[in-house]
Every structure is written in C-alpha cells, then in structure tokens.
Give the backbone structure.
Amino acid sequence: MYQGFDKETFKKSVIANARNLFRKTIDEVTPAQAYQAVAYAVKDVIIDEWIATQKEILKQDSKKLYYLSMEFLVGRYLGNNIISICAQKEVREVLEELGFDLNVIEDQERDPALGNGGLGRLAACFLDSLATLGYPAYGCGIRYRYGMFKQKIKDGFQVEVPDEWLKDGYPFEVRRAEYATEVKFGGYVDIQWDGHKNNFVQKGYQSVMAVPYDLPVVGYGNNVVDTLRIWDAQPVDSFNLSEFDRGNYNRAVEQENLAKNLVEVLYPNDNHYAGKELRLKQQYFFISASVQLAIRKFKENHNNIFELPDKVVFQMNDTHPTVAVPELMRILMDEEGLSWEEAWDITTRTCAYTNHTIMAEALEKWPIELFSRLLPRIYQIVEEINRRFVAEIQKKYPNDPGRVSRMAVIHDGQVRMAYMAIVGSFSVNGVARLHTEILEKQELRDFYEMMPQKFNNKTNGITQRRFLLHGDPLLADWVTEKVGDDWITNLSHIEKLAVYADDKKCQQEFMNIKYRNKVRLAKYIKEHNGIDVDPRSIFDVQVKRLHEYKRQLMNILHVMYLYNKLKDNPNMDMVPRTFIFGAKAAAGYKRAKLTIKLINSVADVINNDKSIGGKIKVVFIEDYRVSNAEMIFAAADVSEQISTASKEASGTGNMKFMLNGALTLGTMDGANVEIVEEVGKDNAFIFGMSSDEVIGYEKNGGYNPMDIFNNDQDIRRVLMQLINGYYAPQDTELFRDIYNSLLNTKSSDKADTYFILKDFRSYAEAHERIDQAYRDESWWAKAAILNVAHSGKFTSDRTIEEYVRDIWHLSKIHVSLDKAAADQE
Ligand SMILES: *Cc1c(COP(=O)(O)O)cnc(C)c1O
C-alpha cells in the first residue's frame, strides 16, 4: 500500500467533499456525486506526491522530456490512479463502509477521449510508463472542449453525438493560470535593421492566450507524478491588445472567436489528413505555447541557452507537432538573438520525430498560401530550412536533380511536414520493426541514404497496469498467484507462466477466468445491445478504428460466407462463434460508415434466424473507447488483426489482446510479426499476402479482383448479396458502393485496393483452423497461456527504456515523501 495512504483520513475526505461540493451528507449523494467526492479525495492523496516530484526534478536539474502530441487517449483516471497509489483494497473497503461499490463509482467517470485511436492511446501508455519508471516528463497537448465524439447506433447507422466530458467539471485537472502564454497568428513580418542585424517582428496579428491545465500522471507505487499539460485557449485581455488592434472592435471580436473555436473539437480522423485551416491553427497553438513555456522554464535556472539540448528533448508524435522545429528556431533567433547556425544546431539536437504511417492519404502537406498567411514568420523560417536543405542535397548528389524534387521540404506549392520533421530532428523512428524497414527501404529511402544515423526502430508497447491489472483483475490475480507481482513493473517476469502452460489444472483455471470475463462481457452486450450471446461460444473480436486498410469489411464478408454455408447445411459441425465488432468511423468517411451499417444489417439477419441454432452471433458494440476496451480484451478468445500487409505501422490493440490471452488471427503486418516471433507461429493463426507481395502488386499491377469473382462461386455469392437486397430488402442499392469498391470500376487497378478478395480464401481457411483448434480445450488453453507468458516484450516500459537509451538520455528520479514517512511512524 501507498505509504501515505490512511483509510480514516481518506474516508473523512470523501465525506467532506460530498458536503462541500453538493451540500449533502454522504448517504444522500447520487453515484455521480459520489464519484466526484471520491475523485477529489484521491487527488488530495496524489497532490503531495506531485509537488514532491516537481521539487525533486528542480533539485536534480534533471533533463526533461516534452512529449508533443495532438492526442492523449488517457481513458478513465479514477481506477487507474487508485491502482497507482496501491490503495485499491483500502479504497474499496472505505467505499463499502460508506455504502458504495467501487466498480459502480468508477463507471460514473466519462472517459477523457482526447484522441482518436492507437496514436493517442500510445501517448497515454507512454506517460504511464514514464512516470512508473521515474523519468521526468511532460505530455503536451490540447484541452479539447469536445473530445472524440460519442457513437450511437440508430437503425444500424453511426450517429455522432458531442462528447461533453467537461460538463460536470473534471476533478483531476488543475488550472495553471500563472503559466498562460500568448500565441500569435496571421499579420505580417516587419523587418527592422538595428545597425547590427535584422530583427523580425510580427505585426497586425491576432492572438490568443494559451492557458494550461495540468493532469497528474501517477507512477505505479513509486511516488513519482509526471504532468500531462493540456492547453485551453482564451481571448487575450483587451488591455493587452497589440497597438494595431486597440480600439478596433471587429478585430477584438475576431480574436475572441478565434479563442473560442480553436480548441472546440478534436478532428475525428484517424490515419487521414484533412487539411483544415483550423487544424493547423490547433497545431501551432499548442506547440508554440508548449515550446515557449519549456524555454521559459529552462531559463529560470540556466543562463546558457546552448545547454538546452542537455536539459530538454522534444519528441514529436507523428507530424502534427512538426511546427515545433521552426517555432524553436524562431524563439532562439528572434527572442534569444542567436544566429541561424547556432539556432539550427540547438534545434536539431533537441527535436526528435516518430513516424506513424506510410499511407499516402495520411501524409500531412500544407498549401504554402495557407501556411504563410497563418504563420508568416514561421513560414519564412521554413523557406530558409528548405533553401539550405536543397543546397545540401545538391552538394551531396550533384548529378541527381531528381532528389531535390523528391526530398525538398517545400514542393509543388506545399510544405511537406514529414520531411521538415526529418530534416529538423536528430532521430527518426518507426513504431515496429517491419514498419521501420519499409520506411528505410521504400517510403523514406532517399532520406535514409542521406542520413542513416538518424533512423531507428522503437516497437510500440502498452501498459500492463491498465490493460491487465485494472482491466482484467481475475487474470491479474491469477498471474500474481503463479509468478508473484513483479510483472506489474517488470513484465518480463510474466515469462515464468510458461511452465504452467501444460499443467491441466492451470489450464482449467485459465479457461475458467476467461469464461467469467466472457460472462461479464455477455452481460454488457445484453444490457447495451439486447442480444443474448453464449459465453461458451468463441468470442472472435475486432475492435479498432474503422478503416478500409484494417479490413473490417473482409471480416463481415467472411461472416456472410459462413452464414451461407450454414444455411446450405444447418447441421454443419462448427463451434458456435460470436463475432464482436467495435469501431468508430470518422464522421466524413462514407464508406467506413456504410461498413458499420453492413455489419449491423448482417447482425440483424443472422441473430434473428432461428434455423441456425445460434451457431453464429454478430454484435456491434456501440462507442468503442478505452473503458469498454479494457473489458473486451479480457473476454476475447480470438484477436482479429487482419490489416492489408504493409499498412498497419504497428498496432497496439494486438498487444492488449495477447496480454489477455487471446490468440491472434492476423496478417504478417506491423507488430504482428514480432508477436508471432515471441509466441511462435503455432500459437497464432497467420494468413494472407506478405507486405512484399502487396507492395509488389502496388508497384507493378497484375491483380484483378474480377478474376476471383468469376472463378470463386462462394465469393461471388457473398458479393451478389451486397446488391440483391439480401441484407437490405428496403433498399437494394444501399451497399452498392461497397460492392463497387471491390470490383466494379472501369480500371481494375482501382478495385479492391486492400486485397480483400485476394486474401479471402486464406482468411477463411485460417478461421477453419481456429474452429478445429478450439475443440481441443487443453491445446487452446496452453496456447492462450503461452500468449500471456510471451507478451513481456510488448510493455510500453520496454519501449520507453529504449527511447531513453537511444534518443532521450534521461535520468531516473527518486521521490520519497518525508511527510508520509513521518505519518507512518
Ligand atoms: C489500443 C486502442 C486502439 C488501437 O487499436 P489498434 O487495433 O492498434 O488499431 C484504439 N482505440 C482504443 C480505445 C484502444 O484502446
């Protein structure tokens, strides 16, 4: 237990909070009010650690990581924080004494959904690991007033509802008005000669005040609390209006609106670039505020700016924070008075970049017109970065003019953000071995040739504290009973489970835990979907953002195929299967939303067909998010990781399933490759084309899905059911677009670009292997236990230690609480 935790004090604190917040005695509060009272009491416990940590960082003058990310998909705080202060048992007891159930209280919290999917969740896992390992770090992001939308399903269609996560206030945040920072947009740059050099002054701009809110990131059992700093935008105080604006009412109103709109909403696109002006404003807003504040903090106790790279590192999570490079240049030159060469040397030793995708539609490119209008001074700097870089290319490759157009930061009227990130960073990393190889050999080959020393791989990871200890308490306790609890902070210890994989009694215990987790999910499904699912069926799960490359379509087409087989032969011998989907589609992504409708239409037909004896059920879980994800992973038998090879940079859902003892049904893509390497090919179900084959077809052509349609009668039948009203009797044209995407374009090279038909037979055959394998319960239990046992590599603790060793070079801090220690005596 946490050394400073005292049950009686905690209880008094909860009761006092209920009085102060709601003017109620504790027996009168609603569960939602009880949540608030408990959350504030937990925050009270954390605050002392938080202060002590920050003091220790200052005392040690530690190097700090600033993890810059547009997204932090942190999930619920309360349960995780209680676990991190190691007081779960005590809090549960206190609440029981007060007449509450901790699980019910935890369920009152809205997920702070400040992210889309994997990229944002990765940032949250990284913060958890950084704090637990004791590294000084800030997450820097945006306090979106509305995070990721809430998904409702109406008539089978996705409907987006605003996510009002701040409606009742958020207990864990602390407003830090004293760190408010001005951020400027637009206007023009006035160049003034002072007799020695040119000074660049932005004039006629609009500005907003960036006001930070801090959220604690509590390390597990070590008293270390790092900070997630998210920025809100507020109108500048009218007394602070620049001279140009004084007395100009319209501009004042515009500035006020800018502040209002800036952080209003998270763009709901995952792996897709939309090019909206407001998005670039959001990017510069939180980057400028974060970088300015980092420099200000640095200068509080350092007077030599050249030491910056020894004390600060900025990690850019994808290209969204890339304006950090020119913003740092601006501060160093325009405010600190450094020369270009000096500023560039510091910048390129302070910034590092993580690449998250190779998909063309996700590559960020901003039109020069927009970029220079919004960020006039920053654009000047980008132009100079580009001019110097182009000169460098020409010097190194004098006889190869093609390289300049292939590699320039500014090209064809656009700023290529990934290229600016690479040029301005000392480190460029991919997020799984295969992904990094594809970057080096294909997508970024020119850059790799020119600066190979920058490139490195950091295979993603996940935190076992949230996704096993909190999400799957039954399995967590069982693991601890078998191998001790070292796995909580050192997941490699979980390897010791392997010796139990063959033990019949352990297999029984494991399957029993899985069964109970399936009962828990079945109950949730009954409550939310009204569908009865059999916890003895195979829970076959695909939960992740909806995207064509992730191929939920292939999954549901296979369900349609299986249903046809069952209709032809109702006595077909198969293990009952529950196909579970969960996915949000970007609000403007029509085909993705239509795929959700297709899944729900197929579910309606199949779930209501008595003739198949319940052998197949299909469930679409509404509003997939971190809180229900934790429960879903715990209940899964099969983990569907079926992206077109080469498209999924890493995936992290795959790792969460593995940790919870689900077997992977997957392609050799992203981190699946490394998962299979750890657990062994025999303990996973691998199918489909390799990334080399996919890339080969993309380069050379030669795939025509029509050949498959014409020659495979089962596939043909399934596709015809998309356009003959089989699943949409009211509107036979409803799914035409999906049908067309697979086949019906004039040029076949634009059809089935994700190779669904090409991989279909191999996928169906892998499903048959699963059906056979599940019949041997002992075999299945063994394979599942081995998945848990071999998941050690995929902790984000390992990922973070690699970033620290190769890129960040941070030192651990140790925090002891004198006050708490005194209380103990
Ligand atoms: C882990 C996670 C993701 C990422 O899943 P992938 O399968 O890797 O795409 C997305 N959303 C949530 C809520 C998650 O927890």
The pocket of pyridoxal-5'-phosphate is lined by residues 117-118, 121, 544-545, 625-626, 629, 651-653, 656 (CB under 6 Å). The radius of gyration is 27 Å. Residues 538 and 577 are 5 Å apart (CA to CA). The first helix runs from residue 7 to 22.
